[in-house]
Design a protein that fits this description.
Number of strands: 4
Order of helices and strands: HHHHHHEEHEEHHHHHHHHHHHHHHHH
Distance between the termini: 77 Å
Mean pLDDT: 87
Shape: rod-shaped
Strand content: under 5%
Strand order of the largest sheet: 1-2
Length: 554
């Protein structure tokens, strides 16, 4: 439609447009100030511009120019009074063309697009008589000024506020009356005075989240995982994670480790699961709590903290053929930040590796690290942290200590630096990662405490001494004749095995010079040794003095 000549002249009374005020609310005040009905104002606007479709989402340039002519408000100010203000932050309106209906459907498919209606803070409306633009955002759930949750529907008509579909303006104009049409004729509107409604007080955590949200949508500095980032990345990640949490809450069978609001999201089995990625949860308290949990995760000081916070939620993901990661990817739009957090939480070994790779060496030299941590240190520091066999955990912790040294960036490298095969190191890391019960922070602290209690000997020299013992029978024969009469010469391999595993702290598979040793026979030989025999057998292998400095004080 082409503008009709003479209809773009200004209105007699100019009304100020307040910051944050929604355009439709402003136009209702303009109509009242100029003694026009809202229908007449809309008629004049439609006659003077190309289209008023999606006026509150993306007004066209002719519409902005017409409104400037009507009200004297700059085009930028008018546009800032529409949801186009949040394009690129809380909303993605890319490609929306009011002249092409298909583009609106494409934008709607991105989810959580504000449609007809709005939320409201009754106290704000009573104090100013103005409807705030931010109330339209599904991610706005609280009023930080009055510390309350917003209201989402009118108790009189049961519909969302400002839910008139045929005109952007209400017939009742700039009043605090609901004004929703009741469907009983053009003059029948809901008469509930919204200024007198009561709103529930908001949870302090939800208010904190709302302040960060408002800061981001206003162009303020925001952080994700402790690093500055764009408002778009922050807001899109919080929303995507909140959607994921709502889906987990809907599908979870066990709610014991999840927040108290989660059971309120559950869907009866006979009903189809909601598509939370398209439409926000209608209960604003539930939606606010989901956004708040997501905000706490995204606003964590580092990746490991975020992964730890989200871990209980991942444990509630239902078992499916596609696996956990497949289920998560099917239930939200993954942002780069969310992908990073999910992968870190899903792979505890990688998070522990990050801890180890970013701290200084736990020993002065890798030569002070035994291939397998002594049993007494395992019992003192590591019991209950893994479900794997103690022998595997003792090997893995040695690899962890080696991992802290410069140039050791993989488990294979950690294994090789200790004289182990790369394959053995990788298999031990995989086994213990899958069996890890404690958080990476707790495991890393236990590893550091274990390293601090090592005696500081050069264990590679001890290993060499055991190899020399295995190479000749003279020392074993003399010991057996004195300490263990009747012992066969073939038992030397079991004595060597005992020295290798108990004195040198080495892995049994790495002593090639002792030949193949039957594990049951080796255990029987070890169990048969008296304390005196253990002591005298140990003395056959020279124990080096701790010539290397011990671990630095931590």
């Amino acid at each position: 439609m082409h503008p009709t000549p003479g209809l773009e002249r200004g209105l007699p009374t100019l009304v100020p447009l307040h910051p944050g005020q929604a355009l439709d609310c402003y136009l209702e005040h303009v109509a009242d100030a100029n003694y026009l009905s809202t229908a007449r104002l809309v008629h004049r606007l439609r006659a003077a511009t190309d289209t008023t479709r999606h006026l509150m989402l993306a007004p066209t340039d002719p519409t902005l120019r017409t409104l400037f002519a009507f009200t004297g408000q700059p085009e930028a100010s008018v546009r800032a009074a529409t949801l186009a203000r949040y394009d690129g932050t809380a909303l993605d309106l890319t490609g929306l063309d009011p002249h092409t209906p298909a583009t609106y459907r494409a934008v709607t498919a991105r989810g959580w697009l504000p449609g007809h209606g709005t939320q409201v803070c009754p106290q704000c409306l009573a104090a100013t008589g103005r409807w705030t633009l931010a109330w339209r955002l599904p991610t706005t759930t609280c009023c930080t000024r009055h510390g309350c949750y917003l209201l989402t529907s009118c108790p009189g008509c049961g519909r969302a506020f400002r839910d008139q579909r045929h005109s952007p303006l209400r017939i009742v104009g700039a009043t605090t009356q609901c004004g929703n049409p009741l469907g009983r004729g053009p003059r029948e509107q809901c008469a509930v005075d919204l200024a007198h409604l009561a709103a529930a007080p908001a949870d302090p955590a939800c208010l904190t989240r709302q302040r960060r949200h408002d800061l981001a949508t206003s162009g303020g500095d925001v952080a994700v995982l402790g690093a500055p980032t764009t408002a778009r990345e922050y807001l899109s990640t919080v929303r995507a994670l909140a959607i994921l949490l709502l889906h987990i809450a809907t599908a979870a069978m066990d709610h014991h480790d999840l927040p108290s609001w989660v059971p309120n999201v559950a869907t009866p089995r006979h009903e189809r699961a909601p598509r939370w990625a398209l439409k926000a949860h209608p209960d604003i308290v539930v939606r606010s709590h989901a956004l708040t949990v997501a905000d706490v995760v995204v606003n964590s000081p580092d990746l490991d903290t975020a992964a730890t916070l989200i871990q209980p939620w991942l444990q509630a993901v239902p078992d499916t053929v596609g696996g956990t990661l497949g289920w998560l990817g099917d239930h939200t739009r993954m942002t780069p930040t969310l992908t990073t957090v999910i992968m870190a939480a899903h792979t505890p070994r990688r998070r522990l590796s990050h801890h180890l790779d970013t701290q200084r060496p736990l020993t002065r030299s890798p030569r002070q690290i035994p291939q397998v941590i002594p049993t007494d240190l395992y019992e003192r520091h590591l019991t209950g942290l893994f479900t794997s066999r103690p022998q595997t955990v003792r090997l893995f912790v040695s690899l962890c200590i080696a991992r802290t040294h410069p140039g050791v960036d993989t488990w294979a490298q950690a294994a090789r630096i200790l004289g182990l095969s790369a394959d053995l190191g990788e298999r031990a890391a995989r086994a213990c990662s899958a069996a890890q019960l404690a958080t990476p922070q707790v495991v890393a602290a236990a590893v550091a405490a274990t390293a601090a209690d090592l005696d500081g000997h050069d264990v590679r020299d001890v290993e060499k001494a055991v190899v020399r013992f295995a190479a000749t029978s003279r020392m074993f024969t003399r010991w057996a004749r004195t300490e263990r009469p009747g012992t066969r010469a073939s038992s030397q391999r079991y004595a060597t095995h005992w020295l290798w595993t108990h004195v040198a702290g080495a892995h049994p598979t790495t002593l090639a010079s002792a030949g193949r040793v039957d594990a049951a026979m080796a255990r029987a030989f070890a169990a048969s040794l008296t304390q005196r025999q253990q002591h005298t057998l140990t003395r056959l292998v020279p124990q080096p003095q701790p010539t290397l400095p011990g671990p630095e004080a931590r």
